[in-house]
Amino acid sequence: MKTYLVAGATGFVGAELVPALEARGARVVRLVRAVSAEHVADVADDGRRAAPPDDLEAGDDFTRIDAAWPAGFTPDCVFHLAARVHVMRDTASDPLAAFRAVNVEATLRVARAAARAGVRRFVYVSSIKALGEDSDPGRALRESDPARPDDPYGISKREAELALFELGRQTGMEIVVIRPPLVYGPGVGANFLSLFRAVARGLPLPLGAASAPRSLVAVENLVSAMLACAEHPAASGEIFHVSDGHDVSVAELIELMAAALGRRARLVAIPASMLRLAGRVTGRGEAVRRLIDPLRLDIGKLRERLGWTPPATVQTALSRTAAWYRSDFPH
């Protein structure tokens, strides 16, 4: 039986990854801030845990991971999902420092502990923002494009990528980085949920002219790609972009959401120039840009190197999201 350690197991993506691993007959150990009383493990003579329980108490930002790591525990792979996520209006006094504390320093605590334990492979879920979203090269973004992150979140994710690859060179642990765009599916929150809710309520949306193609990835497709990155020999030392393989405009996405919900999309075609102006006036310029600017990822490397194809279409993933929405937000 294979064993996997998952940092960030209780989050949106982790909630999909853990059952997918267990369905394969694997054992999953979760890194958590604190463990409940029934999960307290026996302690060996050296004061460390004698055997890995289902949860390892690693403390805030994994500051207690060395003490928590059981003697002789070497999982087959570590998945690192934990992160301080991107927010539109960050209230931290020093956003970059706040992102670095979690996305760089805490990530490296886990990676160093894994390397000391002899873990073979470490799969890190980064973000396309580590490459940068603002420059449109007239084609889909490739892994080989120069990284130009343009906000604290993207900068911290890129710094973590570089630090992990350096750790891999020093220790021999295989590092794999996967960069998703916006991830959606059952359990999604933030702006995607707000848009889904607006469509479900039949509200008119001024996005009928938002026709620029954008890459998205369903959570089940991301998990499928992560499993391939954990197992395929050709993944070692590589960065992979991932998406659904079918880019959609925001207007098309709203139409697909409406179809999944059994509703009629109410789209109003407001020119992009007016939307940009409204974004600047209201201080929501970045949010508007993410709706109307193109963002396309080239996933050819993932397809060709690992033989991966997205198991779910946009339509089936949105149908799954709609079923979750009806269950969790009944009207």
Question: Would you mind describing this structure in some detail?
Answer:
- By secondary structure, this protein is α/β, with parallel strands linked by helices.
- The chain has a domain of 179 residues: Rossmann fold (3-Layer(aba) Sandwich), CATH 3.40.50.720.
- Helix content is 40%, strand content 11%.
- It has a 7-stranded parallel beta sheet, sandwiched between helices. A two-stranded parallel sheet has the order 7-8.
- Helix 1 links the parallel strand 1 and strand 2.
- Helix 3 packs parallel to helix 4, helix 7 packs across helix 11 and helix 8 packs antiparallel against helix 9.
- The protein is globular and about 60 Å long.
- About 5% of the residues have low confidence.
Q: Helical region count?
A: 11
Largest sheet: number of strands, sense, barrel closure: 7 strands, parallel
> Strand content of the residues, in percent?
5-15%
Radius of gyration: 21 Å
Fraction in helix: 40-55%
Cα-to-Cα separation, first versus last residue: 44 Å
| Main structural class | alpha/beta
Mean pLDDT: 91
Spatial shape? globular
InterPro entries: Epimerase_deHydtase, Lipid_A_modif_metabolic_enz, NAD(P)-bd_dom_sf
Organism: Pararobbsia silviterrae
Protein name: NAD-dependent epimerase/dehydratase family protein
How are the SSEs ordered, and which strands pair?
Layout: E1 3-7, H1 14-23, E2 27-32, E3 55-57, H2 65-68, E4 77-80, H3 95-116, E5 121-125, H4 152-171, E6 174-179, E7 182-184, H5 190-200, E8 216-218, H6 219-231, E9 239-241, H7 250-261, H8 272-282, H9 285-292, H10 300-306, H11 314-328
Parallel strand pairs: 1-2, 1-4, 2-3, 4-5, 5-6, 6-9, 7-8
Helix pairs in contact: 1-6, 3-4, 5-7, 7-11, 8-9
